Every structure is written in structure tokens, then in C-alpha cells.
From TrEMBL:
Keyword set includes Hydrolase: yes
Residue sites binding Mg(2+) per the record: D14, D16, D185
Cofactor: Mg(2+)
UniProt cross-references to NCBIfam families, sorted A to Z: DKMTPPase-SF, HAD-SF-IB
InterPro entries: HAD-like_sf (IPR036412), HAD_hydro_PyrdxlP_Pase-like (IPR006384), HAD_sf (IPR023214), Pase_PHOSPHO-typ (IPR016965)
Record Gene3D superfamilies: HAD superfamily/HAD-like
Pfam families: Put_Phosphatase
Protein name: Pyridoxal phosphate phosphatase PHOSPHO2-like
Family indicated by similarity: Belongs to the HAD-like hydrolase superfamily. PHOSPHO family.
Amino acid sequence: MAAPTTGRLLLVFDFDHSLIDENSDTYICKLAPGGTLPDEIKELYKEDGWTEYMAEIFKFLHSNGCTKETLFSCLSEIPLTEGMKELLSYTKATENCDHIIISDANSVFIEHILKHHDIFNVIDQVFTNPAQFNQDDCLELQPYHFQDWCTLSTKNLCKGHILKTFLTDQTDRGVFYRHIIYVGDGHNDLCPGLVLRPEDIFMPRLGFTLIKLIEKIRKKNKPVKLSELQASIVPWQTGLDILAHIKALE
């Protein structure tokens, strides 16, 4: 992470459908027998219980012969979103940008995919649900935290809280950001968008849930008031769009 300084950029990424061009959790479900999950597993899903649901999927896959190696091989198929390699290459080279991931995926998936695409050392910090393989090589998943204060977030991960805490810690270390750029696509990316300041940039991906949610806010002031979104809103489709906007800030 950066030495104490001012005037840096902070680039914050969601992971699934943002940094990578798939949902890593649902992608590995094709490893189930017949390529699809049985109904009794699908019925375990609850809207606010994704972590528990994925933990059951990992148990099911393991019980049906899915090895650690098979899981990693499947994850290696997932591409980065177009232009992300170029974006990260540029921002890393500037030596004036910190990079973090805040994701409701899990630590094992994210670490493997970052290393596979040779960008692990670009990312300064990852905030996600911790995971590890047990002695039987079954992937076990834990919630990042348990929260009951944010209705915009799942109970296991409030991205806004994580971002606020990170920024407070950075301020305590003497690190201040000229601009924060938040790159996301999903419903749970709205909460961290509310943390952003007028000088920051909130980047929802075109065609996904977050940008549709922002349009709803513009029309109906729900689920939050439009005035609560202080940052500039800049839609994106590829990493090259993000790169172009960063260059325009220079």
C-alpha cells in the first residue's frame, strides 16, 4: 500500500461481472453431475443467505467427486472483463493509484483467478468472505461479518461499511485520495456508492442491475434519495472505458 501521501487515486472493484466477466460462484455450478444443480440444492437459496447457499453447493460438489484441481481448472476458464488488463497495467505503472477489491465471492476464488491472470500483485487488498479447503479438500466458506444495519446489503457483507472503514484506516495512516473510483455492477454495489464524495466517480456497468437501480432512484427516489448519490455517475462497458476516464482526470 502507498506511503503516507496526498493526491492519490483509489480504484475499488467489485469482482464478479466487474473485474471478471462471469459470476465465479454460479460458473462453477456446471461441475455438478449433468452440469446443473439438483432442485433440492437450488431450494436452499435465500435472498439474504448467499454465503450459506454456496457453502452447501461446495459440499454437494465435493460429495460428487469434484476435486480442488477440478475446481481451480474451472475457475481458470473465467476471463477478465475486456480491457481490465490494460487498465491495471496503466494504473499500476503510474505508482499513484491504490487498488482494492470488495466482493461477495470468496478469498480462494479471487486469489486463484488473480494469480491465473497475473494481476495478484496489482491488488493491494481484498475484502471478501474467507474460504479454505478442509482436510478432505472440501471448500469451506465463512461470512466476512454479520451485519444488521444495512438493508441495501446482504447480512454477511456490507460493502459501504467496508469502504468507510478502509478510508478511515487510510486517513489514520496519512493517505488521502484525490479521487475514488468505484467499479461495480450489482445491487450490493449501491451501498458503497453512497460513501463516495462529489469529487469521486461511481461507475455502474451497462446492462447490469446497478445502473438500472440508479435509473430507478433518478425517477422515484427509491430505495435511496438521489441526493444521497454525490459522486459523478459514469457508466462503463469495458476496462478501456474506465481507463479513458482516469486519463481524463489527469
